[in-house]
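ARCHIVE RECORD
Type: protein–small molecule complex
Small molecule: S-adenosylmethionine
Source of inputs: curated submission
Record status: active
Notes field left blank by submitter.
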Amino acid sequence: MDISGIAVARVRQAGACALHRSVFARLPGQGRWVTVLLADGNIGIGGVPDALLRRCARLLAPGGRLLIEVEHDDIDERMTAWLEHPDGRRGPVFPWARLGVSALLKRAAAAEGPKQRMPASASASATPATSGASGPTTTSETPRT
Ligand SMILES: C[S@@+](CC[C@H](N)C(=O)[O-])C[C@H]1O[C@@H](n2cnc3c(N)ncnc32)[C@H](O)[C@@H]1O
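STRUCTURE (tokenized, with ligand):
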């Protein structure tokens, strides 16, 4: 799923299913997802990782898995960011976050509540996000701690 129509169109062209919707919007099968994958730095969506973790936990079925790609560095940053095309054009500014594995695991543990527990098998890989060489890159400034 993606809020970008272009991203959704590319996935559909490749033959897979995709929803043109926000992860925070109403989604099919809430509470029944077997796996939620936040790859490519997407734990940054919305700029408030705790809210995104809670949202993903609500999507999962009991025993489901939340897979999250994190930064190599031991960081826990909030920032504003924007997409920048190779020709210098900039997209709108949006809130973002970057987390290393220890910050992520701390936040995942904190997101556990008495009624809503993150799945015990929730795990994170320490593979850094990569970006395409010719496409827009994400640039950031104004860390918010
Ligand atoms: C780090 S980029 C991922 C880039 C993509 N994996 C690629 O290889 O081109 C972040 C993606 O999250 C999407 N996004 C941002 N906010 C979102 C939201 N609330 N719900 C769903 N997707 C969102 C953006 O449109 C963007 O495609």
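CURATOR ANNOTATION: Residues 1-4, 7, 22-24, 40-42, 45-46, 138 surround S-adenosylmethionine (CB under 6 Å).
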